[in-house]
Every structure is written in C-alpha cells, then in structure tokens.
C-alpha cells in the first residue's frame, strides 16, 4: 500500500512528464495503482493507530490478581471470569497468561506456627482393604491439630455428614477439648458453595455443630494452592 512519501514521488514525477510505467517502476507498484493515486489527488488517509480491544480487557485486572495469588491454572481462571460475565474463549486467556509465565515465582515451603488449641484440620481419606475375605472400601476421618500435629483417625463406612460430625466429636473427646477453628476441605457435609466475593455458604448441620461446640468454621478455597491447608496445619 502506498504511503505519503510514495504519493509525493508520484506527483513529482508526473509533473515532470514521466509516463505511468516509469513512475510505477520507480515507486515499486503497478501502473493501475499510480493511476488511482493521481485520480485521488492526494496522499492516502492515515490509518488510526491503537491497540485492538479484546473481550478479555475488562477482566485482565482480575486475571492479574489471581496470578499474583499463585493461581496459574487457565481452566480455573477461565471459570472465575466466566462467572463474572466473560464471554470470550479460553485461548485468548491462555495467550494473555503465557508471556507472564516468566514472572511466576518458584514454589516454596513455609511453615507457619499457630498457638496451641487454635486450629484443627479435618479431612477424609479412603483405602481398599480386605475384611473377612472381601475387598472393601473403608473411609477414615483424619483430624489434625495445627500446633502439635497430633491427629485422630476414625474409620467409617462412608464420608457423609453424619460420620463427618461424629468424627469431629470423637476427635474433640480424644484431644480433651475443642479448638478455636476447624478447617474443612470443602466436603458437602460442611461446605455448600463458595462465593466470588470470598464468602462461604456452610452446611446448616455443620454450623449447628460449630455453634454447639463453640468453634469457628473455616473452609479452604477450591483450586487455590495457598489454602489447600490452613496456616499452621
């Protein structure tokens, strides 16, 4: 495409009486292009400069915040901004994240200490074992104190709400007291949903248990590496 300097050369050569073929050879274009430039009577209009807008633009601040907090999984970030109204594709998001990978901090392990009796982490696990000649799946509740790392394990036929609460009660009895906070790993017996604002909707049964025994319910955020376990656990 001709620029302003090309057009000035075309006009100057034409005023000197040069043929269209000669002008085209000098400028490096076709005779048809030279003819159109002369008919237009002026230089080509300047193109507007600027960066093309993207559907991701309104959500880049949220993406940057998640990256700063250590969330680099594009699928997780995609789900977060979709819930906020994003209607673009995940490929645009991946293209935005890719150049920032160099800023990603290496993972490190930091141990946080908590006061005695402050926190307890409640988790479920499962194993397959042979009982009476039959292979059975056994669930077990593991409740661990944040300060001493002491833990209580209780086996159960399933990991439902009833057995989750009973496992905690048995742990309280075993430890001889109730911690200030009980952290759970998002099992439905304790957590029903996480809000985009960071709020948690707890299971009413779990809230009733917390009110009865006097502990504060806490939930780890799903897919977030910093909260896969609470500080001190």
Automatic annotation (TrEMBL):
Transmembrane segments: none annotated. Keywords: DNA recombination, DNA-binding, Transposition. Residues 112-233 form the Integrase catalytic domain. PROSITE patterns: HTH_IS21, INTEGRASE. Residues 5-67 form the HTH IS21-type domain. PANTHER family: INTEGRASE PROTEIN (PTHR35004:SF7), TRANSPOSASE RV3428C-RELATED (PTHR35004). This is Transposase.
């Amino acid at each position: 495409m001709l620029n302003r300097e090309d057009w000035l050369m075309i006009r100057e050569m034409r005023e000197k009486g040069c043929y269209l073929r000669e002008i085209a050879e000098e400028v490096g274009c076709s005779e048809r292009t030279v003819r159109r430039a002369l008919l237009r009577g002026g230089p080509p209009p300047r193109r507007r400069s600027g960066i093309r807008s993207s559907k991701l633009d309104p959500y880049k601040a949220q993406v940057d915040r998640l990256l700063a907090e250590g969330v680099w999984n594009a699928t997780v970030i995609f789900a977060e901004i979709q819930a906020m109204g994003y209607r673009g594709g995940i490929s645009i998001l991946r293209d935005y994240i890719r150049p920032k990978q160099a800023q990603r901090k290496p993972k490190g392990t930091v141990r946080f200490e908590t006061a005695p009796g402050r926190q307890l982490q409640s988790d479920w696990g499962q194993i397959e074992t042979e009982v009476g000649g039959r292979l059975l799946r056994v669930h077990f509740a593991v409740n661990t104190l944040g300060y001493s790392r002491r833990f209580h394990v209780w086996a159960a036929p399933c990991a439902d709400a009833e057995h989750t609460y009973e496992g905690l009660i048995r742990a309280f009895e075993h430890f001889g007291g109730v911690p200030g906070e009980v952290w759970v790993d998002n099992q439905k017996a304790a957590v029903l949903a996480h809000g985009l604002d960071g709020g948690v909707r707890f299971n009413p049964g779990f809230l009733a248990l917390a009110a009865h025994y006097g502990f504060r319910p806490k939930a780890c955020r799903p897919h977030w590496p910093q909260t896969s376990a609470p500080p001190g656990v």
